């Protein structure tokens, strides 16, 4: 299992994007079908609990800010930032009560895998 | 069990807290914590021969509300930029 580091995560985001963007059409952008496959295969736990990721069509339209019917990497990076924000909020909603700063599980729900797993 | 991709997203939260919890407010990183984050997680930013940065200039670039701290939203802005840079580097 990979350790949690900023660099490792950046690499995973770029590699995963290319894994699906390469399937068809523009090799450096995700079309609707590729986006849907990526979400279902790579974020199966998150999509269950995320408001943002539930409606793929709506999400796609929101991300495709230049309206070229493809989500390029810049638009994809915005989605990742939004999901990081949402999983952090969930970690606070699910945090055990008590003093100090603590987190519960994020968007994956009650059974939390360790970072990088 | 989360997927590798989901783990990488949660890891982005963990990285922020790893440094922010050491000093001051848990959701705002002061200069000292920010320095440690940069020096540990991406020291290349300080030694890039084409565009060398200091910790001070990097913090200024992300600190949009100018309070000398990097809060969680500003951190998201920073990692979005780092993602875009990493993607560009992957095509070189």
Distance between the termini of chain A: 6 Å
Helix content of chain B: 55-70%
Proportion of residues in extended strands of chain A: under 5%
Q: Based on helices, strands and strand pairing, what is the structural class of chain B?
A: mainly alpha
Low-confidence stretches of chain B: none
Order of helices and strands of chain B: HEHHHEH
User: So what's the CATH class of chain A?
Assistant: Mainly Alpha
How does this model look, in words?
The complex is a heterodimer of chains A (117) and B (92). Chain A is built from 6 helices and 2 strands; from the N terminus they run H-E-H-H-H-H-E-H. By secondary structure, chain A is mainly α. Chain A has a single domain, classed as Recoverin, domain 1 (Orthogonal Bundle), CATH 1.10.238. Chain A has a two-stranded antiparallel ribbon. The mean pLDDT of chain A is 90. Chain B has 92 residues and is mostly helical. Chain B contains 5 helices and 2 strands; from the N terminus they run αβαααβα. Chain B has a two-stranded antiparallel ribbon with strand order 1-2. In chain B, helix 1 packs across helix 2. Chains A and B meet through helix 1, helix 3 and helix 6 of A and helix 1 and helix 5 of B.
């Amino acid at each position: 299992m990979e350790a949690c580091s900023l660099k490792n995560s950046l690499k995973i985001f770029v590699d995963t994007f290319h894994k699906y963007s390469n399937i068809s059409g523009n090799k450096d952008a995700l079309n609707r079908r590729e986006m849907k496959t990526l979400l279902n295969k790579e974020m199966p736990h998150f999509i269950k609990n995320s408001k943002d990721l539930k409606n793929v069509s709506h999400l796609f339209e929101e991300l495709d800010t230049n309206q070229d019917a493809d989500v390029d990497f810049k638009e994809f990076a915005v989605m990742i930032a939004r999901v990081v924000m949402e999983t952090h909020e969930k970690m606070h909603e699910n945090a055990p009560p008590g003093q100090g700063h603590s987190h519960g599980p994020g968007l994956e729900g009650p059974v939390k895998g360790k970072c990088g797993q | 069990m989360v997927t590798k991709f989901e783990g990488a997203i949660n890891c982005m939260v963990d990285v922020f807290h790893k440094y922010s919890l050491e000093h001051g407010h848990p959701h705002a990183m002061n200069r000292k914590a920010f320095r440690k984050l940069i020096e540990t997680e991406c020291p290349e930013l300080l030694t890039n021969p084409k565009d060398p940065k200091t910790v001070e200039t990097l913090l200024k670039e992300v600190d949009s509300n100018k309070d000398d701290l990097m809060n969680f939203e500003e951190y998201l802005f920073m990692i979005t930029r780092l993602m875009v840079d990493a993607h560009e580097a992957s095509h070189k």
